[in-house]
# Entry
Amino acid sequence: MKVDTSPSIAGRIEQAFATASQTTGTSFDYLLRTAERESSLNPGARASTSSAAGLFQFIESTWLETMKESGAEFGLGKYAAQIQRTRNGSYRVADADMRQEILSLRHDPKVSSYMAAAYTQKNAESLTSQLGRQPSAGELYIAHFLGARGAEKLITLAESAPNASAAAKFPKQASANRSIFYNSNGSARSASDVYAELVSKHQGAATTGEVMTASATNARFSEVFGLMGYTASDDAAARVHAGWSATQSASAFDSLFRTDGSAAEPVSSSGWSGFTAELTAQVARLEGVRGMFSAPSSAPAKPAAVAVSSDGKPLDLTAYLQVNGASKPKDLLPPA
# Structure
């Protein structure tokens, strides 16, 4: 059975990250790699051992904080206004229904991309101040994973005591993410090993200026589309590559963020309505197609996050985009 390709699935995914990149200045490539690693590009993903959900697997506390601080910038002021910061530094929403509505926005591709981009910029500023240098793309991913303070702690530990147990310093995170903090035989990984694991899939990102050529990208999309019944005329690959390479710069750090003042093209709400439903209908049960953006990795798999369709069957909205078929969304707890 052939899959309906109008409008293009790849085009819809590309649009989510391109819009956030153009609006906030955060690298398209960084957003793409982070979402692929966090959720296998599944907007409906939910973690099994924490509150993490959505494309970027935001836990509830981080989502509320980021929405409070940055939501108004993206036309989400009505939600930001409902979030209050308590005396102990946590964030709460008085109305239970409104709280759930705000948390549900993690499954909206456009909104979650905006929040991820804003969170990345905040982490970049924090790490630059804490480390006394500009962080790499991989180190910014550590900040997405552990929070800025947790990232600074791990980076410093990997430099000063590389053989120290990372699990001993991050017990809660290690419990929720055993494949990151422990070897297959159950032994704890060192700080340097955990650092290397976390930065590995962001190496060669747009920050280095080393991205796929258009022909290579198109060829890989064509291969995937062929397996799915797509026609060779689909031009989504070219558009994705254009967005992917749009932020290349001679400076590794500068290429993470656009500073050319490019205005974002507005995306209507109707363009996102039915996003998850349509993807579900088209690709939920397609399996075994992988390797669109980079070669498969032998990195340990993360605990599964599961989205469920109306018929009760598990969903994997974009399985064909997975870099590694074993890759799963992470389960994340707040930094220690």
About this structure: The chain has 14 helices and four strands. Residues 137-160 form the longest helix (24 residues). The CA atoms of residues 120 and 140 lie 7 Å apart.
